[in-house]
Amino acid sequence: MTTAFLLCLLGSVLQVDDTVAPPSAAAYLLAATSSAVMLARHRAPVATLAATTVFGMLVAPLGLLLTPLTMTPAVISAYTLGMRTERRTAVAALLTSAALLVVSTLFFEDDLSWEDTSRLVTVASSPLVAAVLGRLARHRQAHLAYVEERALRAEVSRDSEARRKVGEERIRIARELHDLVAHQITLANAQANVAAHLFSTSPDKARSSLDEVVETTRHALDELRATVGLLRQRDDAPASREPAPGLAHVPMLLESFRLAGLEVSVHHDGTATPLPPAVDLTAYRIIQEALTNVTKHATARSADVRLTWGSERVGIRIVDDGVSSHTPLEHSPGYGLIGLRERTTAVGGTFTAGPRPEGGFIVTAHLPLPVAESRARTTGGSPDREGR
Which of 74, 145, 356, 386 has the fewest CB atoms within 10 Å, measured from its CB? Predict the structure, then answer.
């Protein structure tokens, strides 16, 4: 407002006869009132432009020279109008303002020289130019706001994706730790019970069982150290050189249960097919968790593991002959069977578990076979696996 007032006074220094003189009282009044009207330009830009245009039309009747400087309030109002109103409204208001300024000047000035004409054109076009600049500023602000919003959305999306990945990694590590600890501790407990039972009657067998406890706990510590070590690795850290367990490790797994006192048999129906690493690990974990639960929860003497190889899926069934203390999967307070269902679903398979009517407990899973490998197997390209 102060700048507009000073510029108006500066413009009124130049007189109509091309001389220079101090601003008159009328110039002070006109500059003050037109500058004061600008206070409302943000709330009512169209009305403010109309008011400043009217004050500009009074310049010639008051004996002052109409110049772009004396029209400073109208120019500033036109800039605000370009920023805050729609294009159609702004164009209509600006053209009307320019036409009124030209007509009012022509009405009071009969004889216009080329210099007067160029000055009048400049005065009439100044609000138009200011409005165009205001429109460009509006587009720039809108673009910056859009870019900022996109950057914010991208940041929120990155944070959500990072939290999702962290959650998935935590679940994966929790499953691995559960499978590891539940299996190894259950075996160690069973072996210790065998040793305690044989301590007074068969010291040699008891010592052998204690050696198995030592070996089991040592192996558990090694696996636990390796699993926890994953938490300390950076994202670009090299992966562990030790392969993930799969069906190839099942014989060693069954042997550990036999040493704990559980008779386990395994049978293969059909022609075996190499499994993808994720499916192979899932199959191993299903057998491991099922037999761990047999040792931990059921008074069973034996368990049977059967692998059925089909054209599209491999079926896994673990049955024990004990008196099951399992509860159904959906009501189980633990996370072992729930974790197995999640693992199986993650690789596209199905999983069920529950007590048998004739006694004992049964765990059944069906895991998908790779299509390419299945086709190769049907043409006789895969080796058979011997059953026991």
Answer: 386
